Amino acid sequence: MATASEIAAVGVIGAGQMGSGIAQLAAAAGCAVLLLDADSAALSRAVASISASLRRLAAKGQLSQFGPQTACEDSIKRIRCVSTVQDLRDADLVIEAIVENEDVKKQLFVELDEITKASAILASNTSSISITRLASATKRPSQVIGMHFFNPPPIMKLIEIIRGADTSDEVFAAVKSFSERLGKSVICSQDYPGFIVNRILMPMINEAFWALYTGVATKEDIDTGMKLGTNHPMGPLQLADFIGLDVCLSVLRVLHNGLGDNKYSPCPLLVQYVDAGRLGKKRGLGVYSYAQKSSSLKP
Ligand code: NAI
């Protein structure tokens, strides 16, 4: 099994909001990155956004934190888009960031277990799904681990590492020091629904939806209340839009099913928005509309 400094080739599966940022971080840290998505349009969008983001960071002089290899254009060249799981056979570490659905993720872990080399570490960026259950889809549960980045990965300082029931100490140590090589701080969670951050964050977001749904206040006042009243950098409804309302709903369902407490039952308004395709900023419409300019908030 590769130690952190030996992790040279990283496979990233899912080139959406999270996978594109994770690919960018690994490339900027000097790794060869193989980026895979079922949707070729997602890959094109990812390459464009990674290039723009790296150029912005380089212009601000902020790429140097990752070391000398990180000249912007070199980092971009280290990312290769691929179209099949077979293309990941030589990866030392694979990080999966596909849709938050346990059955779909398990099927992917079965394929990864068959295709990747015996020493490869298989990581999931899941927000809430059990690492132990994902690991049980493989014949190498000691080499499966949760590596939970935050959105957007190049900016957010944290990686939450989740140990499955069988994750080995060596794999934990390698992934911890690899995370530090990416410039992140690390926290470690045991494998319980929602881990640490989403166990605490998602009930707050859900409560904000209940406040909106039951007419306690407008969305703007709910968000301003939490920003100015509790010193959060953004309100819970805006944050939900940034995370993706589909992701928030999936996590709440995992908390509800896994912890068996009705306090985690998703607010009907959140369910309705997702049913209507209002998935948040990534779709231009969630609680707020982002149709004109991605950074502007419009009621
Ligand atoms: P997204 O919807 O932006 O991207 C998901 C990508 O995965 C899409 O491009 C889709 O085409 C691709 N995909 C889906 N199934 C696939 C498959 N079987 N094989 C290959 N590609 C596939 O989603 P996002 O927000 O990037 O989330 C991805 C994962 O990261 C989820 O597990 C989510 O819970 C987790 N996560 C999300 C965070 C957020 O703030 N959005 C934060 C931390 C974790």
TrEMBL record:
Residue numbers binding CoA: S53, K60, S127
Residue ranges constituting the 3-hydroxyacyl-CoA dehydrogenase C-terminal domain according to the UniProt record: 194-290
PANTHER family named among the record's database cross-references: 3-HYDROXYACYL-COA DEHYDROGENASE FAMILY PROTEIN, 3-HYDROXYBUTYRYL-COA DEHYDROGENASE
Protein name: 3-hydroxybutyryl-CoA dehydrogenase
GO molecular function: enoyl-CoA hydratase activity; oxidoreductase activity
Catalysed conversion reaction: a 4-saturated-(3S)-3-hydroxyacyl-CoA = a (3E)-enoyl-CoA + H2O; a (3S)-3-hydroxyacyl-CoA = a (2E)-enoyl-CoA + H2O
Transmembrane segments: none
UniProt xrefs under Gene3D superfamilies: N-(1-d-carboxylethyl)-l-norvaline Dehydrogenase, domain 2, NAD(P)-binding Rossmann-like Domain
Pathway listed: Lipid metabolism; fatty acid beta-oxidation
Binding site for NAD(+): G14, A15, G16, Q17, M18, G19, D37, E100, K105, S127, N151, K282
InterPro entries: 3-OHacyl-CoA_DH, 3-OHacyl-CoA_DH_CS, 3-OHacyl-CoA_DH_NAD-bd, 3HC_DH_C, 6-PGluconate_DH-like_C_sf, 6PGD_dom2, NAD(P)-bd_dom_sf
Sites marked Important for catalytic activity: H148
Keyword Chloroplast: no
Top-level division of the source organism's lineage: Eukaryota
Domain 3-hydroxyacyl-CoA dehydrogenase NAD binding: 10-191
Stated family: Belongs to the 3-hydroxyacyl-CoA dehydrogenase family. In the central section; belongs to the 3-hydroxyacyl-CoA dehydrogenase family.
Biological processes per GO annotation: monocarboxylic acid metabolic process
Taxonomic source organism: Urochloa decumbens
Keyword list, A-Z: NAD, Oxidoreductase
